[in-house]
Amino acid sequence: MIVAGGYGRVVPPSAEPKREPRGVLLVVAVAANSIEAIALAVAAIGLTVYQASGHRPQSVADSWGVVAMAAVGAVFLGLVVRALMRRRRWARSPAVLTQLIGLPIGIGLSGNGGAAVGVPLVACTAVALVGLLAPATSRSFDSV
To answer: Residue 89's closest CA among 140, 21, 33, 34?
Structure first.
């Protein structure tokens, strides 16, 4: 039984919302997006430490701009991951958009000497897109 409203009205068990378990593909998509958010946070921290330790890039302002964008991206993607875990329908669009932006970046990195970063990014992006666009994921959002 759950208590509804601020007046202590008890709702019978038959009126409790039934939540189906999260689909496997949704969990996979959430995991892939989580990995990307953590990677962005690590990149922001790593670049900050790199600059703080005395290394001077060609353009200090550009480098701090990259740090800021990585940090904001990590926070944003973390919020999207949280919303996906709660099966908020609106979170699917920014998650797919993030993957569609990351895919050509990973492909470009893979072909231009950055295979150590590009190949995992393409793989993670592809896995996330499959998980986000699967019909089972759509049903998982509908069952809330």
So the answer is: 140
Residue with tokens 């060609």: 58
List the chain domain ranges.
23-142
d(CA 42, CA 61): 20
Residue 115's identity, in one-letter code, is: A
- Read off the pTM: 0.79
Where b means 16+ CB within 10 Å and e means fewer, 49-84 reads eeeeeeeeeeeeeebeeebeebbebbeebbebbebb
Gap between the Cα atoms of 132 and 83, Å rounded: 13
CA angle 30, 32, 36 (to 5 degrees): 110
Distance between CA atoms of 121 and 33, rounded to whole angstroms?
11
Band (pLDDT 50/70/90 cuts) for residue 111 is: confident
